[in-house]
Amino acid sequence: MGHEQSIVIGAMKGGSAKTASTYNLAYSLAEQGKRFLAIDFDPQSNLTTCFGVEKTGEVPVTIGHLMISVLEEEDLPEKTRFIWEREGVDFIPAPMMLSAVDAKLRLEMGTGKILSTILDVVKDDYDYVLIDTCQSLGALTINALSVADDVIVTGNPQLLAMMGLQDFLKTVTKIQNRINNKLQGAGILLTICDARTILSKTIVEEVQETFKGQLTVFENKIPNTVKVGESIYYSQPLIEYAP
Ligand SMILES: Nc1ncnc2c1ncn2[C@@H]1O[C@H](COP(=O)(O)OP(=O)(O)OP(=O)(O)O)[C@@H](O)[C@H]1O
Ligand SMILES: [Mg+2]
């Protein structure tokens, strides 16, 4: 992956570690000297919480506000008002009202690329922009995929958790064909893997077999470990909490 990349972390299933992956990837790449912007694009504001923001409902300028500004043809505020920094990683927080933005995007015409207006203002400052999406394939996620260069699909190798994978990839193909032909499937990141269970091993093999020649399944898998939950509780990236 080259310079000025926008990467979306997505999946159709909740709890497949999209947020944990976005958060930790941000710090791992920042440690390698990359300039990083993470965008919380999920109404649940989980990524914002990971960064240690306690009252996500009280953040004055969020990605939701920026989306509304663009929708209303208003000027965007100064970057310093919406870009936050936590130990070398910049991020834009999300509020609860982001779900209202999703509804608004669906009501108005031509809203598929609203997020790109915001990215145009900030992306030159960064090597990577990472967007953490929500589990539903609503207008927000479509917006995220419409501006992205790459999408990393997270998958938790439990039978039911893997079932939305094909549907999600079908949507990625539709977006590639209809809205954003530079979008690439970077690969499938298997998360919360239990090396000890036969089911987990079987499903990992199945996924590798299914996507052979079609989409990379990253060889590095993320193990199931309590350290992830603990590190989030303490708002610390894993490279710090449990290197
Ligand atoms: N490698 C891991 N091992 C154990 N638990 C993990 C791991 N990664 C994430 N978790 C836990 O799994 C839960 C879901 O993770 P996370 O919030 O990152 O998923 P998500 O895909 O962003 O979910 P959502 O769709 O709700 O946004 C969290 O409680 C998190 O602490
Ligand atoms: Mg999440």
Automatic annotation (TrEMBL):
Pfam families: AAA_31. InterPro entries: AAA_dom, DNA_Partitioning_ATPase, P-loop_NTPase. Residues 6-184 form the AAA domain. It comes from the Bacteria. This is AAA family ATPase.
